[in-house]
Input
Amino acid sequence: MRRVVLALGGTIAGLVMLLSFRTHMGSTAVAGVTGSGGTATSGGTSAGTGSPAGSAAGAAAAAAAPVSAGSGTGTAVTGSVINTPYGPTQVQVTLSAAKIVKVTVLQHTNDGVNSQMIDGRALPLLNNETLTAQSAKINAVSGASYTSAGYIKSLQSALDRARG
Amino acid sequence: MTAAGRPGSPVPRAGVTGVSVTTPHVTTTGAASPAAIGLGRPAMRLHHAEHVMGTVFSFDIPVAAGPVLPEVVSWLHWVDATFSTYRAGSDVSRFGRGELTLAQCAPELAEVIGACAVIRDLSDGYFTDWPAGRFDPSGFVKGWAIERAAIMLNAAGFTGHSVNGAGDVQCTGEPEPGQPWRIGIAHPLRPATLAAVVAGRDVAVATSGTAERGAHIINPRTGRPATELASVTVVGRRITMADACATAAFAMGPAAREWVEHLDGYEALGIAPDGSAWLTSGFSAYAPPD
Output
């Protein structure tokens, strides 16, 4: 009944990942990955370093074919290694009955503050809310302001594309 | 606070002449959710993403509101032309250089300056339209423009719309009958994930953080970029207020929790660089129904 489309892609410029769920009814839920345009901790900059919008546009449909492996609790889909501002990162998404039940960051560099930030402590709200948002029904995404060039990598952009 | 602009004047000003305005390329999709199906026909929605003001505004509006959209988009381009600090000929740039008096500028500039002063005082100086010693009301203008775009849609007789300007969202009414808007809050430290989801009908959600553009918000007390929080999200009814308060809260750092706690009608979620998080006491009012 349900079709799951999962596309993982990495580009030199950054990262676009689009997880698109379309049920037979046509309702859509989406989660995306944003590669961000700036560093999280360095001071003094006011300008974004957003990548050219065009270069990332095709990334969602390109790049490495996901590797799937079944397990007792769902199907794990592992993306290719992608470059983020926090270092090379690999994301594993576990699906069960066409819903995301787990998102795991598998790989990152161990040097630098930024990479540690996505590794260590989970946000208390995170896991349950991740399930809620990605399994269905968000209408919009709020996040740190993106530039016109950075929009293509934003969660809102993934949402707009899925509905467009 | 009277920052919302003039609901009775949704018409773009004459100053829009000469500004390149692109007619929106609109797409429609049937939001065929179970609720809509239960009504026998899907609620048709119109989605549009407009590049303007150095970012993108994403609209989610009823299809019937489509004819109003070009007017709204045109007004946003007028705001860009008038308030941009990147355009040497904008009223804001010329005013900042002393080439124009306030009376010679678009009257909206006086409105914006007045509202900035209110929020500056409310935030004990953490919000300012003079960051780094230069006149720059950009921290206010985007939220104000989002809210005025929503007001223009209201004035045309439509509810059930959301306007997302660069990650700051004003939602009005319901996306479909009986359903609240659901807004995901991007996790500042974990690409791929949301930190939380909030829901509401007339609800605004604004987030300030370093994830997209680096440490770009200056703490006016120190003159240095604020880095004590990874992001702060402010939720309330109006995006003008929520956006400016999110900017001020981000500059404040952890002290923002207590500050927002005392702001009537607004709640906050703060996420620190180590991943720890806090909520103000009334935040649960925005918890999704399921």
The mean pLDDT of chain B is 84.
